[in-house]
């Protein structure tokens, strides 16, 4: 931190005026040993520069939205144009229709949408709508999945078998926490047990269809199908929180992602599990699952220096839909400006005011600046080959990090899904929150700081993903891998 005196000084000043010096707790360095976070001054493409003039390769991507890199010319132009026309009217605009059409075209489960200002608002409202539609109060969520900071979903504790929720925050009444049942991700048994026990009280099952909040974690083959089937048997709605996942892996959402569909058919292409270190594992193992139903190549992979990879299950008889009833969106769809959206089946969405009895409103909702940035962002994301490029760059990064870790005897499990990956310091696979918790936070903290001091910016938490952007280059990946080699050597 000797190279960041201005960040140090600004942090001391910020502490006097802004609670904790930050406007979102995840920005503090509390989870990586404390001290001043880096105060950034400017972002351009894959880089940003701090107040001391240091440059960083950015894998934080603002926790996900900045998939085109910073200050993408197309998005910037759209924002400038919107600003010149006035940023807020409090009336409907044609832009909102255009954007709703674009999102519906990419995510067909959305008959109707509503724009809001954040992912938190979007999720919060899907729960209200589900309760209004079903006349039930409780929801089931999965341990470690983050759905924003509204009361009901800020209840994630309990990674054991299904537990009644314990709030993760002061200020949440137990009476509210009691409306949430938390079960382990990827456990159909725990979900079914919870539905068995609280069945006719469950309004909805809420899930990140692909998890982005305790690393990047794929649903096990058949998990989402079983989830949807069990919820529907029970008369509960299925809500997908796609705030992180929508437009992340392809032009669409997780619910329309071929990799997921192929996987739920028992085919995820090639899974490479390298396990030289753990007892009972001899050398390198490469497991190939059948490539019959549309090979998804290497876009989903798990490189682990641990043991016990799980083989894809047999394709289930008859592919059941994994489409949700309601979906929450945010992050990427705002092109870097504040946004959220929710949508779903027509008859459910028609519960919302002014058509129905479920109230939701917003002074800033659908503002022309956010909508314009969102349209420009989605247009830019339609560039042919863009997502394949992210996939290729991230595959190179994954391979480089895995080789470097192996060389230095560091146990590292990398979960990669297309252009996103997570690095867990452990020797076991990470498929649920418990496994993500059981990783070496101190080692991550060291790695994080060693990378930061070499100009590579990651999120300051062992649970967060690395996000590639369309602005990253092969040179950035090489520089990052070299930095990681030096970091691992120092560790
Ligand atoms: N859902 C998920 C899956 C998220 O990752 C987040 C934010 N990280 C949210 C909801 C909340 O979104 P916001 O921060 O825009 O309120």
Automatic annotation (TrEMBL):
Q: Which GO terms describe its molecular function?
A: glutamate-1-semialdehyde 2,1-aminomutase activity; pyridoxal phosphate binding; transaminase activity
Asked whether the keyword 4Fe-4S is assigned, the reply is: no
Q: Which reaction does it catalyse?
A: (S)-4-amino-5-oxopentanoate = 5-aminolevulinate
Query: Which domain of life, per UniProt?
Result: Bacteria
CDD domains, per database record: OAT_like
Record's keyword annotation contains Transferase:
yes
Q: What is its EC number?
A: 5.4.3.8
Output the Gene Ontology cellular-component terms.
cytoplasm
| Compartments (UniProt record) | Cytoplasm
Major subcellular location class: cytoplasm
One Pfam annotation reads: Aminotran_3
The UniProt entry, under InterPro entries, shows: 4pyrrol_synth_GluAld_NH2Trfase, Aminotrans_3, PyrdxlP-dep_Trfase, PyrdxlP-dep_Trfase_major, PyrdxlP-dep_Trfase_small
Which Gene Ontology BP annotations are present? protoporphyrinogen IX biosynthetic process
Quote the pathway field.
Porphyrin-containing compound metabolism; protoporphyrin-IX biosynthesis; 5-aminolevulinate from L-glutamyl-tRNA(Glu): step 2/2
Q: Which family does it belong to?
A: Belongs to the class-III pyridoxal-phosphate-dependent aminotransferase family. HemL subfamily.
* Protein name per its UniProtKB record: Glutamate-1-semialdehyde 2,1-aminomutase
The species this protein was found in: Paenibacillus piri
Q: What is the lineage of its organism?
A: Bacteria, Bacillati, Bacillota, Bacilli, Bacillales
Q: Which gene encodes it?
A: hemL
